[in-house]
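Crash report, auto-generated. Payload:
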Amino acid sequence: MDAFVLQLLNGLDKGGAYALIALGLTLVFGTLGVVNFAHGALFMLGAFCAVTMQKLLTLSVKVKDPGVTFFDAYKEIPYLEVWFGDTGKAVIDYAVPLSILLAIPVMLLIGLVMERGLIRFFYKRSHAEQILVTFGLAIVLQEIVKTAFGANPIPTGAPDAVAGSAAIGEWLGLGAAVVYPWWRLIYLAFSLAIIAGVFSFLQFTTYGMVVRAGMQDRETVGLLGINIQRRFTVVFGVAAVVAGLAGVMYTPILPPDYHMGMEFLVLSFVVVVVGGMGSLPGAVFAGFLLGVLQSFASMTQVKDILPGIDQIIIYLVAVVILLVRPRGLMGRRGVMES
Amino acid sequence: MKDLTTSVNRRSLLKATAASGLVLATPTIFSRGAWAQNFANDPTNKSSVTLGFNVPQTGAYADEGADELRAYQLAVKHLNGEGDGGMLQTMKPLALKGNGVLGKKVEYVTGDTQTKSDAARSSAKRMVEKDGAIMITGGSSSGVAVAVQSLCQEMGIIFMAGLTHSNDTTGKDKRKYGFRHFFNAYMSGAALGPVLKEEMGTDRRAYHLTADYTWGWTQEESIKNTTEALGWETVATVRTPLGAGDFSQYITPVLNSGADVLILNHYGKDMVNSLTQAVQFGLKDKMVNGKKFEIIVPLFSRLMAQGAGDAIKGILGTTNWNWSLQDAASQAFVKSFGQEYGFPPSQAAHTCYVQTLLYADACERAGTFYPCEVIKALEDFEFDGMGNGPTLYRGADHQCFKSVLVVRGNENPSSQFDLLKVVKEVPAEAVTYDPTIFGGELGTCG
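Recovered output after restart:
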């Protein structure tokens, strides 16, 4: 039971990340009809918003390190710490949550510029061309980040208060062995909140209603005198913000490097395909489903029977879905079907 | 009737041909540089010699690669007589004169292995075929080392391995043209065993998480053999993909597995991630079976410790070398490196620096760059003054035998670099093994 709860929690936590990235991806496909291979790069750029915030907060003065005698070594003491002491330290400690404030406007701007500056010229082109140009864009963005921040992962920790693990076993009346890192629980809650926010925006606001109408029948909405294109541009910006926030909050789990977006891109595409291209509930459901499946496939008992299953389970599910139900679990009839 | 004249003439002709052949061959056999035309990128008619530094500049082991490159650049400086000379002041015996190698200025080209075997092979090939590199060195992964070593064997180019810890590199995949100064997984196990027994006892249950490639497998095997010989039980050995990023799905099963020791057979970025995440899951403060849960990282490095931050504190492991060593050679190298770059060298930097000097010294002693002669000069070469005490480059498998350091993540560092504390310096005799146990054939030269 303990093992089951732990793996389930782990799967949900992984699924939260997958769902968040896939959500933006499928939103862009559903509205603009664009297959955006630069979406992983947006996740990465979000993570680097956290790195940037951390670097800004830790701008430092160099002081000679007395512990090193062989040569002149200098250690860096952040100005915030020099000026404000413990208060400064506490602010630096909360760099990741604080970077959400930076990431929202920055990612929105990046999304809008990306859509207006490049993506819109490819609406009427084939999916193959869209994939090529967005993939190229992703590589360009990666190289820019690599030039600015280097190739190595940059440790970006969670605040000390939530750096340890929560004794959920005791809460649930299970064994003391059942513990789970606080930050991962926060990430799960955060992803659920963002998902709820996006759904509420689309479901309960007039703006969202028009967007949904545009997704169903763009032409008719246009005939009603609504500038649906402008709304879709905003939706692209929202998708960029969602991917960016997913990246910001992921930094304490995985120290970011320039390549992290590519690692998630493939996974999130599989999630979108399994959920159904353009289906928002599909992306969320498939995200959690695949996260949970991947987690359970990594259990020793499962790996003993099927060695290596943890590394292929997600793709195996995708293959089965594509064979049996090409439109995905919750996809619209006709999409991806001949 | 038999034509005796013809018979005698033919015999005389054969004799004369053999004699002339011998006469013509004599000067080329007994004179230096006679192999000039016979090996790749022969620098005889050039004023300089080019070395190829093949290091990971991107990918999981990029940190280590960057430090390796710094060390190589420093080694080139010292070989050319620039700077303070570093370990050229302490190496014994020393044939190098500080005027390059065999009077030729040392130059270098670099390649990015990307920590991928195919990329590493093509960058090594490019450096040999296009840039004229006479020797290839570097790397921070055993998979890459084994692949490049085998390419070098095919091309007749000496490969001085960088950071590679798999038993296979000088075991089943050893090659005549390949040499390793760095220690290996077997040695880590042999050095760790007594310390583990002393600190954790003989009644323990170990859980392994292992990077799924040649280095991970051999380290898991070596450490498992060591701990099982101590009486420990192995609960599970789980393979994880290289560069997995999020290891949480592999760590959660550890929590209720009944294991009281987690052995992380990971290195570089993987190590930083898996150790950080294991600590986030509370494994460092856990009590299991009435004992304190322990995490062991059999192969440690200071660079890794930096990336993992506080997670590394109190964790046991082994290392090939550490900058805090107090011998004259280590101090000379740390001073030289520190003055150049502002921070101390990593173990990867140390092994690469030493390998470059050893190769250059072997050329100087051989009096030629001809690989087969340089190989002979390196085989069974005994030296000292390179930071690890008296060392033997064993001819049977091209593996260096020297002391191994058992270290622990420092609880109270005195400086930002003072992250590992040396627990024990295990002498070379305690980690020496029979070269035949891992199989493999060196092959031939030429």
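Post-recovery validation: Chain B touches chain A through 47 residues (CB under 8 Å).
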